[in-house]
Design goal:
A hairpin with a 5-residue loop joins strand 5 and strand 6. The chain is mostly beta strands. The protein has one helix at residues 2-18; strands spanning 23-30, 34-36, 41-46, 53-62, 70-78, 84-92, 109-120, 126-133, 146-148, 150-158. It has one domain (23-158): Jelly Rolls.
């Protein structure tokens, strides 16, 4: 019975990912147990077609053990010729009632968070995107050392949807 459920989930994921014509890059890295403040998720990206613009997203998966209604992230993009852009970003993770945002039918929610839109990869070569959390609790000087409830960190590049 367990093997059939695993097979079904594998087939469903293949079907859903293969039916995504806008996806150019979509990779996740698992977070073991807790996301340490010094742990950086790093993504190496080959420059896509330099004649088109793309939308960039940070993807997070969280469980109901995540105890905050927002998240602060530091996202750094390094270009092939060495230029680096570093952003500190805040995203909502829950509505005012405490219900988690994102998609998912189980206790794991998947959040597709805007990073940049209409980006043209003008430089040929490899880009590197690094993501780490920068969470702090109100009234405390030091940041959260180990963030609970985030299970995966991902980065996505997609073609803009034509409407």
């Amino acid at each position: 019975m367990r093997n059939s459920a695993t097979l079904f989930l594998l087939l469903a994921s293949i079907i859903f990912t293969s039916c995504d014509p806008n996806r150019v890059f979509d990779v996740y890295q698992p977070v073991p147990n807790k996301w340490h403040k010094d742990s950086v998720a790093s993504f190496n990206i080959k420059a896509p077609d330099s004649t088109n613009a793309y939308n960039l997203f940070v993807n997070l998966r969280n469980t109901n053990t995540y105890k905050y209604n927002n998240i602060f992230l530091i996202v750094e993009m390094t270009f092939p010729h060495g230029k680096t852009i570093k952003d500190t970003l805040e995203y909502k993770m829950a509505d005012p009632s405490g219900k988690f945002l994102g998609t998912g039918l189980t206790d794991i929610k998947e959040n597709k968070l805007w990073y940049k839109e209409q980006v043209v990869f003008k430089e040929k070569g490899d880009y590197v995107v690094k993501i780490q959390h920068a969470m702090r609790e109100n009234g405390k000087v030091n940041g959260v050392v180990e963030l609970e409830g985030i299970t995966d960190v991902g980065f996505r590049i997609e073609k803009p949807s034509i409407k």
